[in-house]
Design goal:
By secondary structure, the chain is of the alpha+beta class. The protein is 33% helix and 34% strand. Strands 1, 2, 3, 4 and 5 form a 5-stranded antiparallel beta sheet that branches. A hairpin with a 2-residue loop joins strand 3 and strand 4.
Length: 111
């Protein structure tokens, strides 16, 4: 049974909707995520290689488990168009038990 300590909420940003949809589909297909929310575009302001940059990006909220995180990270690194993608995992400290169990079931490796 999954506990809240096993569940992660992972954040990343993509440059456009097509890239966001492609990555989301890949993560779901490989069972590395139970659900990926593709959010509305936002404006990101950041410093990159010494210069302040502004870009339109599409945020993703990825629900997964600690057990699948390493593979998820590897898949994102391979498929992400950025040289250095944002990839931040936050542990879920509370959640509806049935939902957490669903996340675990949907991300269970099938090999």
């Amino acid at each position: 049974m999954n506990t809240s300590d096993d569940t992660l909420l992972v954040f990343t940003n993509l440059p456009d909707a097509d890239a966001a949809n492609t990555l989301a589909a890949l993560l779901i297909e490989r069972r590395l995520a139970a659900c990926v929310n593709i959010l509305a575009p936002c404006t990101s302001v950041y410093r990159w290689q010494g210069a302040v940059e502004t870009a339109s990006e599409v945020p993703l909220l990825i629900k997964t488990t600690r057990a699948r995180y390493a593979e998820l990270q590897s898949a994102v690194r391979e498929a992400h168009p950025y040289e250095l993608p944002e990839l931040i995992a936050v542990p879920v400290t509370e959640g509806l038990p049935g939902y957490l169990t669903w996340v675990a079931a949907e991300t269970r490796a099938t090999d």
